[in-house]
Amino acid sequence: MNSWRLPAGLAMATAVGVLVATHGPAFESVAAQQPAGGWVQPKTAWGDPDLQGVWRYEASVPLERPAQFQGRASLTDDEVAQRQKVEEEQEAQRLAGAEGTAVGRGNLEQSPIRGNEYNSFWQDHGRPRQVYKQTSLVVDPADGRIPYTPDGKKAEARATARYGAGPYESYLDPDTGERCLTDGVTALMWQGPNGGHNRIAQSQGYVTILHEEYLDRRIIPVDGRKPSGIRQWFGNAVGKWDGNTFVVETTNFIDRTNYEWASIFMRPSETLRLTERYTRTGANTMDYRITVEDPTTFERPWTAQIPITRLPEETLIYEYACHEGNYAMTNLLAGGRADAAKRHK
Amino acid sequence: MRAGFWGAVSAAAIVVAAAGCSRQSTSEPAGSAAAYRAPRTADGKPDLNGIWQALNSANFDLRAHAARPALSLLPAAGRSGVPGLVRATAVELPDPAVRPLGAVGGVPAGEGVVVGGEIPYQPWAAARRQENAREWLKRDPEIKCFMPGVPRATYLPYPFQILQSTNKIVLAYEFAGATRTIHLDKVGDSPSPTWMGWSRGRWDGETLVVEVTDFNEDTWFDRAGDFHSDALKVTERFTPQSPYHLTYEATIEDPKVFTRPWTIRMPLYRRVEPDKQLLEYKCVEFVEELMYGHLGVIDPATGLKNK
């Protein structure tokens, strides 16, 4: 995540471009959202289920289940009402220009992604976040927690402690976001408002996902071909239709575990394997599930169930020229040199 | 479309050979546009889906040019030695920064892709173009892995993919992962200047016509220093000519830099290898040492402290 740098792209324009006031009731879970009366899955001209549009995650469900909800997969109705009130207040505060805890700048526990907890305007949807009964996006294992290996846990803790803190001795030390490399495939669909818009475009034989931040792009063949075997940052994705569900298997990721200070979602390993299921549940809702397997980092596969929202038809994603305007890199390194000079005085 | 591989290769090879020996290729559309009707997509439009690539030296220099030893050249020094002898003198020599590349770093000749041959620069801009060429190693945005802009993205030596939906056409370029969305539906204006422009498309018979506006002034047209301002407008025409090639034409208007509109034209070839995919060329990682290595406390290239 690259929340403190004003990108040459147009995150701000995007954030304000999609203001839509919708206050809905809390959803039981994504799966429980019944297609709105009479909604039928549309098809493309060549007969595939049509998933096209600009989609983003805008719920308030944390990735992992907070300790206070241990043993519970769902919030009570009272908790939902309370949370809805908080989200509405926080949004009003954001629109009024407030900062800090008043706008939900709390801690990592409250935040599904790192970086959500500060500079909250970057994370502003322009409307209150949606409240769901789910207590965590992680639905398997049943405790709602990511089953890290001990080494994986340590690596993630190191990256979290180091994030935004440095020291920055070289361009290798900021995370892959500050380096304008990628958000990583794992978190692409549920990053949130700051550059987390995803345009799904379909052409015969392909589903393409254009992610705004870092120009991340996936061109997913849906023609029965095998993975190329060429290791890449975004691996080799192959797609197929299972009824109206788009299923994507991605393997052959490049090894970038050496990028120590990046979140585990942003530095793939060769053993990473992702299985995604995209199922539209209505005109503007999608049940997105991702199963993450990587014996290097996790004891067992885990699955997150993530509600995704389709934005109005006229929503556009914009050119995110990150690397072209990465003045933050030179400034970070200048700061790193100043820090080093101080330490050696 | 899965034509037999070898049949397709030989057809493409014939097309390449034909284009290669025809000096007409920049003044007349390749082939006869009226003669070929492309297959249709499910919604009845000419089907441009596929992976395409230019096969020419336009990215080195849009104009006709002879081969030369390197992209960055320095004048050869005079010789001194035994008095009274007449001596051979060197032609221009490769800049020491690129000299170790030898023949790999040379520039292949090309017949040029500018219709009429001339780029109509205003006098100040012609001088600036020459300065850009001399300072190529410092100034060419391709070296820094910046988004290549339009039309340059089309004839970089990397493939690009056309992904054709109904109201949007995605042009996905391998270089730097650059992407454009061509809007066939009505969209608002670009809120800001951009690297890859703001693309609005329409069908003109067999031809996809794209008007591209809202550029910044930071992209180039080639490695020879050809440039534009933020007043650039590019009108592109993609016209299918056979199952294996199309004609790409781009008309360039920029009243701040040129005296009149001018046009480039070239064939683009379909990549017909079975299961050909666009692969990653995420070059930001490739240029970090060049751009930032000297700025850190420690240079990762040497593991040593920077001075």
In short:
The complex is a heterodimer of chains A (345) and B (307). Chain A has 345 residues and is of the alpha+beta class.
Give a topology summary.
The complex is a heterodimer of chains A (345) and B (307).
Chain A: H1 11-17, E1 53-56, H2 77-95, E2 138-140, H3 150-162, E3 198-203, E4 206-211, E5 217-221, E6 236-242, E7 245-251, E8 273-280, E9 285-293, E10 302-310, H4 327-343
Antiparallel strand pairs in A: 1-3, 1-10, 2-10, 3-4, 4-5, 6-7, 7-8, 8-9, 9-10
Chain B: H1 5-20, E1 50-54, E2 73-74, E3 93-94, H2 123-134, H3 136-139, H4 152-155, E4 160-164, E5 168-173, E6 179-183, E7 198-204, E8 207-213, E9 233-242, E10 245-253, E11 262-270, H5 284-292, E12 298-299, E13 304-305
Provide the β-strand percentage band of chain A.
Answer: 15-25%
The sequence of SSEs of chain B as H and E is: HEEEHHHEEEEEEEEHEE
Strand order of the largest sheet of chain B: 1-4-5-6-7-8-9-10-11
* Stretches with pLDDT under 50, minimum 5 residues of chain B: 1-28
Average pLDDT number of chain A: 84
Radius of gyration of chain B: 22 Å
Number of helices of chain B: 5
Give the percentage of residues in beta strands of chain B.
Answer: 15-25%
Number-wise, the strands of chain A total 10
The low-confidence runs of chain A, each spanning 5 or more residues with pLDDT under 50, are 1-25, 29-33, 111-117
Molecular shape of chain A: globular
Largest protein interface, residues of each chain: A-B, 54 and 47 residues
Number of helices of chain A: 4
- The overall strand count of chain B is 13
Oligomeric description of these chains: heterodimer
Report on the biggest sheet of chain A.
10 strands, antiparallel
Helix/strand structural class of chain B: alpha+beta
